[in-house]
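hiii so um. not sure if this is the right channel but i have a protein structure encoded as tokens and i wanna go backwards to a sequence. like what aa goes where. can anyone help
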């Protein structure tokens, strides 16, 4: 495979006389631990490697997504805005990116335009300079207000076109979506987002060139995951076919449910004949820290996945899979995971094959769990499922199975109107209630309630991974210093003369 790709790159170089540079976007501090650690990396875990990430030469660095807000407040008792500020203070060589899930600021329900606009503004004030915006129904009216605010402030906007294996999601569909967002918003980057790792090499060979031809000088990014084991091959193919940048994670937080490895991508892209302007030593130092951090916290590292064709039916996103496993374990029904995964594939098709990106993996999985736990399928219908069927999230691109729709409407909550309500402005009421607080705190209290925000604790920049004596002495030996060093620990004393 690499030989054929290398020949294509060489032919392109002979034709144009210039060698293409492929940029790497870093997802280590966002997507990677979302996929492998259920978004449980704390802010103080990130700070010791920010300088190395800044030095690594990434084109952009992902800092946070809405699930990072949720996990930060609900499970880690940390202020997500503080995380953004601390990262922005330390990573100044590349734009800091935030992933924005449509207009779903609070939970999985659409929120009024005014609070979404204020959120984008506050993220910019705190240091975000690249907004990666997705709407899993590709309903761009949902995200238009926030995008316009971001562009007015001078931030870059990346639009994620989420890949879906379903009828109607052909190359022409994605070309139309790309042209629409470029014409409407003047976005800076189109990201082909393959959250479930279901994009194949064969489809890449048609879809990426079609997008490349359609978007002109707008940058094209590939965001794929490694659930099927094919992510790295798809990424290389995408680069040859015209992608400008690849979303990666620093190994050992790559592979498995996560992203392709930054170290491997840099090596293999260079072997194909591309220029890749990342610093390998910085990547290795970040990876060394992450390996020690994972061992200290007893967290998993990414392992290359075995090829499993079943993933192409469920198309379940990497981060969602890790969260689902954690939730079933917490509920004492981890043994139900195989049955739930199988049911997810069926529910997804019955609900019209929605794109399996936020919020729909959680919604489909909630229904699948109910179907597995109850004697009759759709006997219990989560509110989110009925709202989806009724169009609360936007127009459905494919119809819901008629029999399933009847079950959802009959068994779902009677309190949910079949017609989505109008979303009235909410900021006037919030300012009356929280006017004495900062805009950031007001947003957080609206999203999570007073009790959760009262429990937040400041970040202490004192975390260090544990090191063995051997590693410590070796590190001292590499230092260029004339100072004398004395190390004292229980039962041992070491002296080193500079």
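sure thing!! here u go:
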């Amino acid at each position: 495979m690499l030989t054929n790709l290398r020949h294509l790159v060489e032919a392109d170089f002979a034709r144009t006389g210039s060698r293409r540079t492929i940029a790497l976007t870093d997802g280590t501090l966002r997507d990677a631990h979302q996929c492998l650690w259920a978004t449980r990396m704390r802010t103080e875990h990130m700070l010791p490697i920010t300088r190395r990430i800044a030095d690594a030469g990434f084109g952009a660095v992902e800092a946070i997504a809405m699930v990072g807000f949720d996990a930060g407040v609900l499970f880690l008792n940390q202020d997500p805005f503080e995380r953004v500020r601390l990262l922005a203070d330390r990573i100044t060589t590349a734009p800091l990116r935030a992933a924005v899930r449509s207009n779903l600021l609070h939970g999985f329900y659409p929120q009024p335009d005014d609070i979404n606009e204020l959120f984008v503004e506050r993220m910019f004030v705190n240091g975000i300079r690249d907004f990666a915006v997705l709407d899993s129904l590709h309903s761009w009216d949902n995200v238009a207000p926030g995008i316009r605010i971001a562009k007015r402030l001078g931030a870059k906007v990346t639009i994620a076109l989420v890949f879906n294996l379903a009828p109607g999601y052909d190359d022409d569909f994605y070309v139309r979506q790309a042209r629409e967002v470029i014409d409407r918003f003047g976005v800076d980057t189109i990201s082909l987002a393959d959250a479930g790792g279901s994009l194949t090499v064969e489809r890449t060979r048609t879809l990426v060139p079609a997008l490349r031809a359609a978007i002109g000088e707008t940058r094209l990014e590939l965001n794929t995951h490694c659930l099927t084991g094919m992510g790295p091959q798809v990424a290389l193919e995408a680069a040859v076919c015209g992608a400008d940048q690849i979303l990666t994670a620093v190994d050992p937080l790559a592979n498995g449910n996560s992203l392709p490895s930054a170290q491997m991508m840099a090596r293999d892209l260079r072997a194909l004949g591309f220029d890749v302007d990342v610093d390998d030593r910085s990547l290795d130092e970040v990876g060394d820290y992450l390996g020690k951090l994972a061992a200290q916290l007893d967290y998993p590292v990414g392992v290359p996945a075995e090829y499993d064709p079943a993933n192409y039916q469920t198309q379940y996103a990497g981060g969602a899979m890790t969260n689902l496993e954690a939730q079933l374990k917490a509920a004492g029904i981890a043994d139900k995971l195989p049955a739930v995964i199988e049911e997810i594939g069926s529910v997804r098709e019955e609900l019209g094959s929605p794109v399996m990106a936020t919020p729909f993996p959680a919604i489909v999985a909630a229904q699948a769990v109910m179907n597995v736990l109850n004697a009759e399928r759709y006997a219990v219908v989560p509110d989110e499922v009925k709202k989806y069927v009724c169009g609360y999230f936007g127009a459905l691109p494919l119809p819901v199975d008629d029999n399933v729709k009847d079950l959802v409407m009959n068994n779902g909550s009677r309190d949910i109107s079949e017609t989505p309500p109008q979303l009235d402005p909410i900021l006037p009421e919030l300012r009356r209630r929280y006017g004495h607080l900062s805009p950031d705190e007001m947003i957080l209290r609206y999203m999570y309630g007073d009790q959760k925000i009262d429990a937040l604790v400041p970040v202490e920049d004192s975390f260090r991974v544990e090191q063995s004596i051997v590693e410590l002495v070796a590190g001292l030996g590499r230092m260029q210093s004339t100072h004398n060093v004395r190390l004292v620990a229980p039962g041992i004393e070491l002296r080193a003369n500079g």
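oh and Residues 467-497 form one domain.
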